[in-house]
Amino acid sequence: MKKNLFFTLLLLPAILMQSYAQTGKANKALLRKADETLQFAARQYKLMMTHVPDTLLPRSTNKDGSLMTSNANWWTSGFYPGTTWYLYEYTKDPVLKAEALKRMELCKKNQFNTRTHDLGFMMYCPYGNALRITGDTAYKRILLNSARSLSTRFNPTVGCIKSWDHGTWKFPVIIDNMMNLELLTWASRESGDPRFEKIARTHATTTMKHHFRPDYSSYHVIDYDPATGNVLQKKTHQGLADSSAWSRGQAWGLYGYTMMYRETKDKSYLDEARHIADYILNNKHMPADLIPYWDYDAPDIPNAPRDVSAGAVAASALLELSRYTGKAEGKRYWNAAETMLTSLCSPAYLAKEGANNDFILMHSVGSLPHNSEVDVPLTYADYYFVEALLRYKQWAK
Ligand code: GLY
């Protein structure tokens, strides 16, 4: 009896956290708004599917206002079928399922693509959701092949997966790559082969060491010497400056370390995610509606473009992070995510039906330094927004 009491006391914090995990406090108005918005999103994507050529995938809006598409080789190819799966999960509309299946076929060949680090985005978003929602085990083989292809880019001397083959870099690793690791942790669980997870953990731990500044903002690109593992350069590609905090990069890091904590229960990843969340939420340039400017150090704040994609990724991550932290801290993350979602569901960011090339959200930034995809819809903003709305509905009590 005494022993039982001892163990109960020992486990009390975990029990309390678990019970908190099931009780993110619901904002009734936002729950209603989430339903309305998900229904709108499904109608919007059913319009979009009639405009996208059969062999292509939607990507953004061109400078002339027309729909920008990509083929399946582009890093964002998996988001549209992934979002369509989420919307099918919500509506059970067979038209959405048929569309997800059709577009996913285009992505299938990427299971053998070893020239990109983006296979998590490209394959786990469509095929991971397809497996989860349909239970069709045929998708497992495709996902395992994808995990094998991604693993070929790992260099044990560096302790990272190489991001890009282009440019003058020796061994570039970008913070975005944290997002691709879930494919690997899944692959180890599924196959029983620990090597995939080992690669994911090593990559995450190396990134923690070199990508972050003392204030927990992150560099975009770290270039390593592939022969020694030494850091050669700390740079940016899509941010304002090497020393600045590119908003989407901070969001990828936040989501990546929250996900890696879920997948491994390694507390150092949880702490990293909490520090990144605090950097973002305490940033003096974070606007009141919590939708960040494209770079936290943009010189023309408050007139700088927002990056809605960074807001959507961060909202989804904060909802999850709130479930792994103590009550007061969790409430802060949960409330911040609610503010972000309330903003994203407002006319300031949510498209009008039939407008915005039928994307759900407006006002994202792909790469401002390259004058590419500035103040446009982006398919990954939609993906993480829909994911966040579904998470909110699932976790709000
Ligand atoms: N992964 C590329 C980007 O976030 O723009």
Automatic annotation (TrEMBL):
Provide this UniProt record's keywords sorted from A to Z: Hydrolase, Signal
Q: Which residues form the signal peptide?
A: 1-21
Which molecular function terms from Gene Ontology are attached? hydrolase activity
- Please indicate which superkingdom the organism of origin belongs to: Bacteria
Hey, which family's this protein in? Belongs to the glycosyl hydrolase 88 family.
Q: What is this protein called?
A: Glycoside hydrolase family 88 protein
